[in-house]
């Protein structure tokens, strides 16, 4: 039941991937073909497909996740909250996508 002033919007997300913005900034990019792209942006481009609420997988940058690895970016898949992944800059985006279990969308 929706109350007064409350609306509901629908999303097509099956899962969301959270990328620590602070880790990405400290890593200075490090992903993509030239090695200068932030992980979230490179992953979005690799996955492709629809954007926003219509995407099957949401790739979101968050505030600090407090893992703070040296020279790596912390990534959390929301349907696997017990296993956080750390990716070093320079890791091929194909390997990142495979490790996270995301495939290109249509």
How would you describe the overall organization of this protein?
This protein has 106 residues and is of the alpha+beta class. It has one domain (18-100). Helices cover 23% and strands 19% of the residues. It has three helices and four strands. It has helices spanning 21-27, 39-47, 93-100; strands spanning 15-20, 57-62, 73-77, 85-87. Strands 2-1-3-4 form a four-stranded mixed β-sheet. Strand 3 and strand 4 (85-87) form a beta hairpin. Helix 2 (39-47) packs across helix 3. The model has no long low-confidence stretch (mean pLDDT 90).
Q: How many domains is the backbone divided into?
A: 1
Major sheet strand order:
2-1-3-4
Order of helices and strands: EHHEEEH
Please give the largest β-sheet: 4 strands, mixed
Q: Helix content range of the residues, please?
A: 10-25%
> End-to-end distance, in Å?
34 Å
Give the overall form: globular
Radius of gyration: 15 Å
Task: Give the DSSP E fraction (strand runs of 2 or more residues).
Answer: 15-25%
Low-confidence stretches: none
- Strand tally: 4
Mean pLDDT: 90
- Oligomerization state: single chain
H/I helix tally = 3
Which structural class best describes the helix and strand composition? alpha+beta
């Amino acid at each position: 039941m929706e109350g007064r002033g409350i609306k509901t919007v629908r999303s097509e997300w099956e899962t969301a991937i959270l990328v620590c913005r602070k880790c990405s900034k400290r890593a200075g990019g490090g992903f993509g073909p030239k090695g200068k792209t932030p992980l979230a942006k490179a992953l979005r481009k690799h996955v492709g497909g629809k954007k926003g609420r219509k995407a099957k997988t949401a790739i979101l940058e968050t505030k600090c996740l407090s893992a703070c690895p040296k020279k790596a970016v912390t990534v959390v898949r929301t349907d696997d909250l017990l296993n956080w992944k750390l990716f070093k800059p320079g890791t091929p985006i194909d390997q990142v996508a495979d490790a996270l279990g995301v495939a290109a969308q249509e």
